[in-house]
Amino acid sequence: xxxxxxxxxxxxxxxxxxxxxxxxxxxxxxxxxxxxxxxxxxxxxxxxxxxxxxxxxxxxxxxxxxxxxxxxxxxxxxxxxxxxxxxxxxxxxxxxxxxxxxxxxxxxxxxxxxxxxxxxxxxxxxxxxxxxxxxxxxxxxxxxxxxxxxxxxxxxxxxxxxxxxxxxxxxxxxxxxxxxxxxxxxxxxx
Length: 190
Hints:
alpha+beta, Alpha-D-Glucose-1,6-Bisphosphate, Chain A, domain 4, nine-stranded antiparallel beta sheet, 4 helices, 29% helix, disordered N terminus
């Protein structure tokens, strides 16, 4: 009797959608998306034939390149800038909702890494889940035939009826971002 109860609990846990894990490979882009409760994690990688890590880190960090790669927001505004960091506001608006998220982006040149962290988020209108946190990084790793970029993001949202739909959207948009990044880098970095 006990093995049936344990099997039923495991099936119920997996069926509940509390954890979603997927690995997709297309155009040499791989990703995993894991969701547990109100938290999510996206981990993606893609390779580039370029052997110039300075060009690649410049594309990943520079505000002008950020605006060309991120096509989803209605506007991206540079708010303030320091020596190796800046704050940027992403503004999203449609008929049903409006959102403005401010992120701090920092360059860690020696580690070949760009980090980002949401420092503020305002949402109005038809509410998707309230976003509590969003952090992550882009990191460059050398390979035999070029460079690999690792894109990691994790976040937490409020419990909400549309949470699952929001998580599906986050995964899809992060994956599409990797495709845009790959196309852009291939045109920009020799």
